[in-house]
Amino acid sequence: PLRAKQGANVSQMHYAKQGIITPEMEYIAIRENQRFDELPADDPLRTQHRGHSFGANTPEGHITAEFVRQEVAAGRAVIPSNINHPESEPMIIGRNFLVKINTNIGNSAVTSSIEEEVDKAVWSCRWGGDTLMDLSTGKNIHETREWIIRNCPVPVGTVPIYQALEKVNGKAEDLTWELFRDTLIEQAEQGVDYFTIHAGVLLRYVPMTAKRVTGIVSRGGSIMAKWCLAHHQENFLYTHFEEICQLMKAYDVCFSLGDGLRPGSIADANDEAQFAELETLGELTKIAWAHDVQVMIEGPGHVPMHLIKANMEKQLRECHEAPFYTLGPLTTDIAPGYDHITSAIGAAMIGWFGTAMLCYVTPKEHLGLPNKQDVKDGVIAYK
Which of 18, 23, 126, 337 has its CA 20 to 30 A from that of 268? Predict the structure, then answer.
């Protein structure tokens, strides 16, 4: 596996800040313009009202490679492209570019073979998924991920704490920083393009969730909350954050700062715990940028329609315009089995307000694991 020389930085942001336009940036500029270029000169879409930009500075005409470089340098966009994932086609996530959609796959302790997961990965790309997350929690996590990455033309993300937890047989309190660091290196060497890191779940925020209707619903968030309470110590992802940055820039892995305290029902939307974590993610974003590591911020899953805009505005303010990546959000909790629809409503709104990437939701959300048909339905609902 490739790795930067000792002390060197190979991230796209590092090149962008030095004024270097990388081949990835040129490729992205061509790719972002493709659909617009296909329109005839007199097509009504060219003269249609551009809508409300909500403060974004999307270019009027063509997106140039220089514009891509400026956005990456400013931290307003990310190019997830691990140097060990040559199979991936460069793509960009940012609010001044096309809205992207992410698809989730992965095995669990009860179902799914490697073959099925690779099949789902190819299938999600076939219907238009722009990125892919492997959320495997069952057996053969390493091998499953290797097969997925080697066959995946889009960036692949993971939640490394899931694999670290399997290594300690599911006991959250047995996790250690050293074990987690080794897991990060293992995955970065395989070619994972972005890591979800729940570094904003701080010990003092955990009691804020006590009054919630649905408590902590994020798997990574609950793992870290359990660790913090068991040891009565601060989250090791937070205390070792700079060391994680050192590791990320050696492989050009992008941060997806996880929302471990996201609301699990609309009753808990925009509460104290959710926003306290968001403010911490904003502080961590600044630290990562000082290391020239790319960052996107994960956003909530259950928000009623009238509270969606406030989420977007607060994220832009607190996280310094880093790209927002949201799970929907679902606008109601009363339709399990149809959550690809309830979440597409929230996703359309938050995408309009400035979210850069939307994580798809399948009809199986809250019920079970998605099969191929569910993956297709989820991607189409979002696309």
Answer: 337
Q: Exposed e or buried b for every residue in 211-245, given b needs 16+ CB within 10 A? A: ebeebbbbbbbbbbbbbbeeeeeebbbbebbeebb
Name the residue among 1, 20, 25, 14 with its Cα closest to residue 249: 14
- Is residue 75 within 8 A of residue 289, CB to CB? The reply is yes
CA dihedral 256, 333, 338, 349 (to 10 degrees): -60
User: Could you give the CA distance from residue 102 to residue 99 in angstroms, rounded to a whole number?
Assistant: 10
Distance CA 337, CA 343 (A): 11
What's the pLDDT score for residue 58?
86
Q: Contact 234/225 with Cβ under 8 angstroms? A: no
Q: What are phi and psi of 367, to 5 degrees?
A: -115, -40
Which string of DSSP letters, residue by residue, matches 213-230? Answer: SS----HHHHHHHHHHHH
- How much is the pLDDT for 290? 98
Q: Which residue has the tokens 């329609």?
A: 305
Mean pLDDT over 247-256 rounds to 98
Question: Considering only CA atoms, which of 314, 308, 303 is closest in space to residue 268?
Answer: 303
pLDDT in tens, 61-104: 789 999 999 999 999 999 999 999 999 999 999 999 999 999 99
* Amino acid present at 135: L
Helix (H, G, I), strand (E, B) or coil at 56: coil
Domain ranges for the chain, please list them: 12-382
> Tens of pLDDT along 100-145?
999 999 988 887 789 999 999 999 999 999 999 999 998 899 999 9
Give residues with Cβ within 8 angstroms of 283, minimum separation 6.
none
* φ, ψ dihedrals at 100, nearest 5°: -105, 160
- DSSP H helical segments within 128-206, as ranges? 141-150, 160-167, 177-190
Q: Average pLDDT, whole number, for the chain? A: 96
Pick the CATH number of 12-382 from 3.40.605.10, 3.20.20.540, 3.40.50.720, 3.40.190.10: 3.20.20.540
Among 58, 368, 280, 214, CA closest to 298: 280
